[in-house]
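Retro notes (design track)

What went well: tokenization of the new backbones is finally stable.
What didn't: we kept losing track of which sequence belonged to which structure.
Fix going forward: every design gets posted as structure first, then sequence, in one message. First example under the new rule, 726 residues:
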């Protein structure tokens, strides 16, 4: 395991990817976004060193006044244990942030349970669960990081739910937030219910069976309830008054307890005589009553819940509060503002960046597999993930839903740096941070997301069907340089049970500098005593889409023809993505080829007496695999004398895997033409049309060569120009 500091633009991402994955690891870049934390990395590294592996790793932000993070869910089948690991970036007193996990049967994963190993500090909290847990092995586990809760006010009567099971689950979640470490002594008062079912009673019974609550003292009469309302006597009070709208003897002592921070769950349908209770609950009541639906909010309530009235004058009522945790569906005319169905009293904290990991020891483990590591702009990347044979279920799965979510930059890093500039290098903890890395730390790179299906059927870039290598061609991406973050998502279903798997990966796309798309501007020429010409070349490296490489990258510059040019190997960064290169050339040299930034650039020189490049002819125009071809270039006048023996013409092929050409060819001094060979390789099925180009001075000439597969029905009729041995 290793940790490095820097940015994707100044680290060698391809090399580090290769190093990590050849040793069975994974290379990750964490760009200081929400939830990116060394503790998160260490958790994943721990899993890589053991039989556990990361199945899910959500991240996000938790504002200071928000009660809980967004919930995360893990679905599994056949796990033998699960580790729920969480952390945040600003330390708190242990307990001010807590990880709560609900098992598939609704039980809280409880510290102190014989099947649970639990630990917490000011920056993290984890629970390892040995399965089965309270009889639950398969199904969906639900986790959240919560702040301390001390009170819930519910805007519904205890028998209002069309599905009592749904209502019971809602109240159980409230108890879990109020009592994440358990509540030993519970006082339960309920009066005025009109039907047999009570979600309060059901929830308390289930939590007692699960061991989260201890002794439950149940009362239904005011004279017995009032004397029990003593300070520091109860860990939790569950109270529901749905009877006559009159003053009660317990109003004052119950209100005092709530003001002192007593943990409680409250329902009170009285309209004229519940004022004392609302004073310390920090809750106000609205005019909206008898609404019939609680909306899904993705936090406390996962799905809409229907409500029914068994004959109450008021069976639901609206709430306003600083912390509304469920929303009532109310007609806009009745309540123009948001109406709460559930309100809570929560202790606010600090703005936090959080992460969570779910580690498991089951089948379906995903491993990264890079088709290549050195991606350049202009290439459409390929995402690929695999399962080793030992991680594949015997007989496979009945259904596999596999996709990859890609977060990609919409503006290139080089372009952003070219606009902003680098500034000065900085020093952090005695470590020098170069200007490019320092500038990137202060830039917000805009991104977008796109989802692609993954294939293991030999299509869409997948090489071999059914080998548990899942592939997606990231069509339309790769146009901008920067960090690409991938999240592979799998839902594996067998015998009606679905296992969820996720894997995060990242790669960096560098600017694929294209010499033809880059701006090359020779400067003013001066003549040296030896007759050579000296000038600076202004170079703005860019790719075929115009993305600038930006300021900061280092490069070593070389030039050709070797005997007719001399170049300063270090380019001078002039800012804004422009580089100055000092160049000297011999007399009668028509053009120079520079190699820098992993690309080639043709630089025309001031040579008024040099001939013009007038033609490039490829013969034959079409060939089969491995057949011979050649091209002839023609000048407008005899080639001049140069240290390299004549006019050096620079050559290129746009499809070098199909047909390649020499880097350059010399037209001998006094001659007007010369031929050169074209080396033809192998193409598959569909013919390739190769463009061969020649550059000399200000002129560029091109010719085309069609290369076909003789075994393909797509191949056309080709007349060989040379006799070949096949």
């Amino acid at each position: 395991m290793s940790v490095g500091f820097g940015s994707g633009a100044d680290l060698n991402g391809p090399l580090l990817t290769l190093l990590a994955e050849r040793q069975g690891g994974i290379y990750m870049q964490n760009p200081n976004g929400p939830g990116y934390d060394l503790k998160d990395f260490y958790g994943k590294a721990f899993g890589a060193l053991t039989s556990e592996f990361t199945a899910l790793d959500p991240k996000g932000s938790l504002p200071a006044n928000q009660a809980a993070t967004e919930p995360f869910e893990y679905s599994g089948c056949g796990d033998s244990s699960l580790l729920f690991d969480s952390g945040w970036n600003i330390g708190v007193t242990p307990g001010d942030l807590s990880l709560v996990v609900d098992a598939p049967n609704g039980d809280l994963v409880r510290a102190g349970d014989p099947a649970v190993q639990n630990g917490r500090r000011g920056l993290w909290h984890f629970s390892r669960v040995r399965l089965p847990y309270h009889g639950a092995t398969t199904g969906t586990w639900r986790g959240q990081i919560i702040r301390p809760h001390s009170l819930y006010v519910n805007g519904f009567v205890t028998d209002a739910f069309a599905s009592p099971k749904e209502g019971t689950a809602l109240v159980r979640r409230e108890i879990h937030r109020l009592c994440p470490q358990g509540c030993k002594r519970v006082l339960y008062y309920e009066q005025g219910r009109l039907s047999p079912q009570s979600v309060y009673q059901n929830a308390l019974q289930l939590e007692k069976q699960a061991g989260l609550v201890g002794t439950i003292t149940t009362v239904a009469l005011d004279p017995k309830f009032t004397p029990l309302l003593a300070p520091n006597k109860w860990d939790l009070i569950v109270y529901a008054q749905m009877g006559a709208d009159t003053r009660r003897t317990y109003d004052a002592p119950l209100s005092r307890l709530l003001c002192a921070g007593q943990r409680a769950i409250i329902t009170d349908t009285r309209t004229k005589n519940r004022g004392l209770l609302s004073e310390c609950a920090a809750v106000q009541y609205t005019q909206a009553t008898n609404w019939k639906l609680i909306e899904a909010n993705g936090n406390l309530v996962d799905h809409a819940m229907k409500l029914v009235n068994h004959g109450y004058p008021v069976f639901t009522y609206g709430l306003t509060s600083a912390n509304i945790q469920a929303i009532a569906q109310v007609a806009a005319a009745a309540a123009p503002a948001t109406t709460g169905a559930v309100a809570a009293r929560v202790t606010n904290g600090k703005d936090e960046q959080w992460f969570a990991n779910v580690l498991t020891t089951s089948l379906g483990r995903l491993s990264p597999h890079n088709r290549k590591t050195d991606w350049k702009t202009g290439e459409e990347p390929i995402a690929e993930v695999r399962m080793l044979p030992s991680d594949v279920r015997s007989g496979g799965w009945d259904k596999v839903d596999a996709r990859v979510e890609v977060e990609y930059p919409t503006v290139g890093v080089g372009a952003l740096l070219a606009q902003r500039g680098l500034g000065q290098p900085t020093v952090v903890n005695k470590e020098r941070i170069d200007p490019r890395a320092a500038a990137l730390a202060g830039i917000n790179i805009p991104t977008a997301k796109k989802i692609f299906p993954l294939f293991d059927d030999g299509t869409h870039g997948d090489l071999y069907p059914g080998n548990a290598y899942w592939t997606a061609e990231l069509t339309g991406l790769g146009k901008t340089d920067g960090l690409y973050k991938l999240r592979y998502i799998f839902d594996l279903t067998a015998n009606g049970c679905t296992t969820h798997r996720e894997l995060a990966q990242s790669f960096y796309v560098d600017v694929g500098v294209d010499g033809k798309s880059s701006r090359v501007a020779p400067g003013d020429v001066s003549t040296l005593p030896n007759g050579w010409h000296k000038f600076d070349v202004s170079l703005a490296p860019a790719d075929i889409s115009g993305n600038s490489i930006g300021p900061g990258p280092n490069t070593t510059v070389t030039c050709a023809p070797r005997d007719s040019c001399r170049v300063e190997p270090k380019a001078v960064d002039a800012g804004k993505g422009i580089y100055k290169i000092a160049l000297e050339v011999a007399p009668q040299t028509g053009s120079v080829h520079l190699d820098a930034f992993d690309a080639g650039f043709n630089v025309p020189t001031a040579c008024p007496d040099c001939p013009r490049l007038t033609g490039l002819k490829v013969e034959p125009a079409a060939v089969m695999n491995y057949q011979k071809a050649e091209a002839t270039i023609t000048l407008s006048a005899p080639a001049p004398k140069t240290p390299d023996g004549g006019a050096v013409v620079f050559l290129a092929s746009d499809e070098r895997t199909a047909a390649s050409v020499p880097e350059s060819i010399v037209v001998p001094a006094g001659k007007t033409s010369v031929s050169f060979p074209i080396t033809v390789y192998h193409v598959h099925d569909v013919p390739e049309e190769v463009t061969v180009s020649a550059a000399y001075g200000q002129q560029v000439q091109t010719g085309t060569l069609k290369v076909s597969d003789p075994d393909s029905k797509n191949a056309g009729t080709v007349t060989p120009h040379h006799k070949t041995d096949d």
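Added context from the reviewer: The radius of gyration is 36 Å.
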